[in-house]
Design brief:
GO terms for molecular function: ATP binding. The chain is an alpha/beta fold. It is built from 11 helices and 5 strands; from the N terminus they run αααααβαβααβαβααβ. α2 runs antiparallel to α3 (about 35-60), α3 runs antiparallel to α6 and α9 (about 175-190) packs parallel to α11. The chain is elongated, with a radius of gyration of 23 Å.
Amino acid sequence: MTDSLRAALKELRLSGALESLDVRLHEAAGHNLNHAEFLELLVRDELAVRSDRQLRRRVKAAQFREARTLEDFDWSFNPSIKRSQVYDLATCRFVREAKDVLLIGPPGVGKSHLVQAIGYQAIKCGHAVLYRSIFDLIRDFLQDEAVGGEDKVVARYLKPDLLVIDDMGMKQLPKRSGEYLFEIVMRRYETRSTVMTSNRPLEDWGKLLGDVPSATAILDRFLHHAETIAITGRSYRLRNRGTKTEEPARGGETASPARGDASGGRKPKAEEPARGSDGESPERNESLSGADA
């Protein structure tokens, strides 16, 4: 490869072609490829590099808590989860149809893993995705409202093709949380897809939001076109423990069963403080601490 050709490829930002050109030249000479065949291979190399780069950018922009895939999920642990139903969601037909999804069940059964894996599949299908816990969402609104940037944060939540809101249900949210969540759900209704997870039954959302009318309006719109997946079973993180006492799990969902959980969880004897998605304790960030769903 000549220096002038290398410089030209750099100027055109054809890094994929630049990286593979020497290999393709040897391949063309060894297999007697014609000009068109050689050029096609080079163009495919460039497209592959650009696709991989775009995937990495979109995954970073999605702000997943952890890198999760459906292949990594232990389907045998909680047989109540229907693999076919989840894989159907992974086709992203519901995203194209602007429908919503709700995963509901006790902590530790894999809700956060599944929604992040579905989000990753949506990115691979070419969709823009944003993942936030409910506590992150409320914090974003409170912070931007304090500096007069509420319109900017609303636009951020309206833009993605798929919005994933995780961790609904561990404790009561701050004042005006119902208004913020309603704003997002109402404006995405029938235009963009939203996936939510909850540890608590729907009838508890009014108490969690501190605003029964807002909770009713949220659920009225969100559930209109939503597919609901109820998951039952034990906490995966506590699978090797010989005790039924559940405690907050490191780096993941809070493991205390929710009172009156729709999936049959029993009321805990003592509730331990949950930690927020930013690692702060309730004493430092009382209104915004949360747990992984």
